[in-house]
Amino acid sequence: MIAGFSALRALNPDLYYQHVQEDQPLEWATFWGFMVAAVFFIRAAILEREKRKLPWFAAGLAAFCFLVAMEEISWGQRVLGYSPPPYFLENNYQQELNLHNVMATSLRKQLLGALLVLYGLLLPLLKRIPAGDKLLTTLQITVPSPGLAPIFAMLLGLLIVYPLRYTGKLVEACMALAFLFAALSAADPLIDEPTERAEPIGPMPWLVIVGALSLVIMLGLGSALWSRAQLSADPAVAEVAATEIRTIEGDLRKLVKDGTLSCAQHERLNKMAKLSKGDRLRKGRFRSLTRRGLPEERAEFFIDPWSTSYWVRTSCNDTRDKVFLYSFGPNRGRDSSKWKLGGDDIGVLFRVRKHEARRAENKR
After folding, report:
1. Distance from C-alpha of 42 to C-alpha of 44, rounded to nearest angstrom
2. What Rg value do the Cα atoms of the chain yield, rounded?
3. Between the CA of residue 86 and those of 29, 259, 270, 296, 303, what are the distances in Å?
4. What does the domain layout of the chain look like in residue ranges?
5. Residues 6 or more apart from 110 whose CB is under 8 A from it?
6. Contact 248, 310 (CB under 8 A)
7. Residue 268 — φ and ψ, nearest 5°?
8. Which helix (H) or strand (E) holds 316?
9. CB atoms within 10 A of CB 214
10. How far, in Å, CA of 201 to CA of 194, rounded?
11. Phi/psi of residue 327, each to 5°?
12. Residue 278 DSSP symbol
């Protein structure tokens, strides 16, 4: 997976950029990887319960995988098209209903790295130490197969080195598969106490592994296609978005001429407004649309009619600034490349020539 996406990034950066975005097969495969893992961890918990054990660890892993899966798709926000509570619009940098994006990026990476070390590397290591094995058995902790340790180590290395932009997306997808394999092993009904079996159990049959991988891939592709097909465009709503974009364009042109718009950025418009100097964008023509029926919440956080954020990309030089303003459109997924509108996205690309006084200021 890493090699394939690295090649895609080198050969076709625009296509790579599109495939690591929300609601693409990669994200849906991550969702289904964790969700199927949750089902098998539940199965493992049931097996442990039948042996009169307290399946707290397997049940906890099932709950963890379910939580991560739902966080990955923001609890269905983009699919269902609902607007999250104001707290998440204000404090979640992606303006989505999930907890992990409320945290700082560095903290999220640290927690992810700690998870890879503690679950994927430390537990198998303790299992090989007699005293550690005894402790894990007493606590009834289900240990992932040592054969998965190289995968967890590789993912940790990728997270530290971060060789590609959006490496985190690839790490999450691979981690979903690693947890899926761990869940398959834990839920294998043939695995019992060492004293109760005549001979060691061999590796999981390849049929099980290939079947699980195929299921996750098919569900990922199918979900990506379904989430797009169900969101048909309403011409009236699309025209509302086009009108709002033209209004925002007027506000952005003024900011460019004033030299208060942040350069070389690609952000949600709400964050761009915070980065820009002054408060012109928040009090501009777009905000005035509330007098014509624009909901206050959409106006305050720059939300489009489909409950997703307006986005803006800027590029600056000595003579003119280039601005790309767009909405994800009715399918609530980014179809555009870096500077080209695509799919059902609605937007505008424009350039603004700088005034002589501002060019002199930039040179200073």
Report:
1. 5
2. 25
3. 29, 30, 13, 11, 12
4. 2-229, 235-363
5. none
6. yes
7. -60, 145
8. strand 311-316
9. 10
10. 10
11. -115, 150
12. S
pLDDT at residue 34, as a whole number: 97
Q: Are strands 311-316 and 320-327 parallel, antiparallel or unpaired?
A: antiparallel
Identify the pLDDT of residue 201: 44
- Bridge partner list, 312: 267, 325
Is 160 exposed, middle or buried (CB count within 10 Å of its CB: 0-12, 13-18, 19+)?
exposed
Distance CA 133, CA 131 (A): 5
Assigned token pair, 238: 């699309």
**Stretch (H or E) spanning 313:** strand 311-316
Q: Integer distance in angstroms from the first to the last C-alpha of the chain?
A: 47
What contacts 287, CB < 8 A, 6 or more positions away? Answer: 299
3-state secondary structure (DSSP) of residue 238:
helix
Number of helices (H), then strands (E), belonging to the chain: the values are 17, 4
Please report, for residues 24, 111, 188, the alpha-carbon distance to residue 225 in angstroms, rounded to integers and kept in the order given.
Answer: 9, 32, 32
Structure letter (DSSP) for residue 142? P
Q: Which residue has the tokens 């975005």?
A: 21
pLDDT tens-digit profile, the chain (364 residues): 888 999 998 998 877 877 887 778 999 999 999 999 999 999 999 988 888 778 999 999 999 999 999 999 888 887 777 777 888 877 776 677 888 878 887 888 899 999 999 999 999 999 999 999 999 989 989 899 899 999 999 999 999 999 988 898 999 999 999 999 999 988 875 444 444 444 444 555 778 888 989 999 999 999 888 876 655 556 878 888 999 999 999 989 888 887 788 888 899 998 888 887 767 788 888 888 888 888 887 888 898 988 888 999 999 887 788 999 999 998 888 889 889 999 889 999 999 876 543 443 444 4
Q: Please state whether beta strands 320-327 and 346-353 pair in parallel, antiparallel, or not at all (unpaired).
A: antiparallel
Tokens of 171: 């790490």
